[in-house]
Amino acid sequence: MSRCLSERAIDHVVLERGEVANSWRTERWDSLRLLTPNWQSRLPGFGYEGDDPDGYRSMPETVEFLDRYARVISAPVETHTTVTSVESDNVAYWVSTDQGDWRCRSVVLASGACNIARVPAIAEAVPSGIAMLSAMDYRNPDQLDRGGVLVVGASATGTQLADEIHRSGRPVTISVGEHIRAPRLYRGRDLEWWMDAAGVLDERYDEMEDINRARSLPSLQLAGTVNRTTLDLNALTEIGVKLIGRLAGINDGKAQFSGSLRNQCALSDLKMGRLLDTIDEWASENGLDGEVESPHRLEPTVVEDTPPLGMDLTNGEIKTIIWATGYYPDYSWLNVPVLDRKGRIRHDGGIVSEAPGLYLMGIQFLRRRKSAHMDGVGDDARDLSAHLVAHLDGTAVA
Ligand SMILES: Cc1cc2nc3c(=O)[nH]c(=O)nc-3n(C[C@H](O)[C@H](O)[C@H](O)COP(=O)(O)OP(=O)(O)OC[C@H]3O[C@@H](n4cnc5c(N)ncnc54)[C@H](O)[C@@H]3O)c2cc1C
After folding, report:
1. Using one digit for the tens of pLDDT, what is the confidence trace for 382-392?
2. How far, in whole angstroms, is CA 359 from its chain's centroid?
3. Four-residue CA torsion sign, 368, 374, 379, 384
4. What is the distance in A from the centroid of ligand 1 to the CA of 354?
5. Over the stretch 327-337, which tens digit does the pLDDT of each residue have?
6. pTM here?
7. Closest ligand 1 atom, residue 35 Cα
8. Per-residue pLDDT reduced to its tens digit, 127-139
9. What is the spatial distance between Cα 280 and Cα 295, in angstroms, rounded to a whole number?
10. Which residue has the CA at smallest separation from atom 38 of ligand 1?
11. Pairing of strands 185-186, 172-175
């Protein structure tokens, strides 16, 4: 957004509570690599220029990439400046920070979609002898006691943590709810390449039948690994990780799991099949069939006949529970009445119509399926900066 505003000669400032790329520096686990390939970080006027376009950046590489971008575009970043309040008097916005206050005609909320780890209320019933960590607190397996680990959540984060922790010698059980299975490579190309080429990532928010549902879907079960392997539930089962249903409750130290594991896995296989059908259709229509490998399907997810429905959390087998149950944004400092009853900002593709001049960025499916990925913010910033300029000129259409 800063780059787009500069292009349009809009005087602006970027307020950042830490350093540039703060969430990548401080909120991710050590071994994480981006699940999007290197070529897929196309920021306005900037992109990957190295010799490994299909690789996946480590965290230090990601930080370096964003740091360099901020320097190249001379982004006017005020670091170590925490916004403590944003208010509106209907003429202007008043932004308070721990480094002084600002008055401005427009505010872009780009504070991230993943500020707080979502931990279900059931966590309160976990017996006291068990350590609990959210995916945001987790750094590496050395942090954990020896002994069993229950990872709750089986999307991109949960599957990666289950894999790493199990390989460290701590037996892992993963609790599986709704998830979306995805092969890393399909017909010899990265799944992200296919979704990008076939236009899946460009699908627009105003074309979705149920945008709220689309915005709350879990992340694809993808991981950025050096050897470009698929990390799905079958891969976890192969190394010995145990699958169990969705965690439904904890009573007297006994955890209860939903009996829907088979159904969840079958549904996930089905959704993956539909995505691959879309890709195959697009490949045929675009004459790629002769160039790439033939279509194929993955083996169904293997689930034992009668997965357990309960687990005794008091017998000492489980030493740690990791909550990989998602994240949500923090708007506790936003004192403009634009939140719905679930704490989400009411907006139309990032335009907060109830508060003219207020914009939102970086949220899942904000304007396009790719909006919450680095590769997606460029198009959103172009659209929203155009609207912002019209707002400043007094010609914006609601
Ligand atoms: C585990 C994980 C893995 C991911 N992997 C990928 C991936 O492989 N590829 C990809 O494209 N995306 C990935 N994402 C999504 C990724 O978060 C976004 O692509 C990207 O970080 C969004 O950028 P952003 O600037 O909108 O948000 P953020 O990167 O979260 O940046 C928001 C910034 O706002 C600052 N901030 C927040 N509140 C305040 C305040 N009150 N005052 C001042 N500053 C504040 C924060 O310090 C932070 O620097 C992943 C997300 C997670 C959680």
Report:
1. 999 999 999 99
2. 20
3. positive
4. 25
5. 999 999 999 99
6. 0.96
7. 8
8. 999 999 999 999 9
9. 7
10. 111
11. unpaired
